[in-house]
Amino acid sequence: MPESPRVSFPLTVNGVTHHLTVDPRTTLLDVLREHLELTGAKKGCDHGQCGACTVLLDGRRVNSCLILAISQQSARITTIEGLGRPDDLHPVQREMLEHDGYQCGYCTPGQVCSAVGMLDEVAQGWPSAVTDGTEPELDRDEVRERMSGNLCRCGAYPNIVDAILAAAR
Ligand code: FES
Ligand code: FES
């Protein structure tokens, strides 16, 4: 059987540029987890349906299981490992702790990355499907709609919403 092709390219993750040599069909999620040992982003469905693999590309949230790593050579990629440290948490991480916004924690990195991206979208005035009027106002409906791509099997949703609303204040 012929060997799978491999290509070399750079990838900048959490401010560090890595030089990778991988099969060009490797997803961003697999590069993060299997090649860079950044296992914060989780593989839930591997089909773009659960949000557990969410990371930020130039500040915008994406499902990393749906993206080829090779296509992101010029992007600034931020994973949960790059958002905060245990002694210097990102406000969303701090409020998730404060409000107990997790149970098993499997979906939590994706929830946090998505919330960070989502709060920036709101700050920039992007409407959602439930925005009433022209200026989005962050209430529970807005948070629920905007976070609807992130599933939590434990059902920690009410506390996650509380945490996001607190981080937005
Ligand atoms: S693992 Fe990417 S959306 Fe589920
Ligand atoms: S905290 Fe368990 S799946 Fe969300």
Automatic annotation (TrEMBL):
Superkingdom classification of source: Bacteria
Record InterPro entries: 2Fe-2S-bd (IPR002888), 2Fe-2S-bd_dom_sf (IPR036884), 2Fe-2S_ferredoxin-like_sf (IPR036010), 2Fe-2S_ferredoxin-type (IPR001041), 2Fe2S_fd_BS (IPR006058), Aldehyde_Oxdr_Iron-Sulfur (IPR052914), Beta-grasp_dom_sf (IPR012675)
Keywords tagged on the record: Iron, Metal-binding, Oxidoreductase
Limits of the 2Fe-2S ferredoxin-type domain: 7-83
Family matches, as PANTHER family: OXIDOREDUCTASE WITH IRON-SULFUR SUBUNIT, OXIDOREDUCTASE, IRON-SULPHUR BINDING SUBUNIT-RELATED-RELATED
Protein name, per record: 2Fe-2S iron-sulfur cluster-binding protein
The organism of origin for this protein: Cryptosporangium minutisporangium
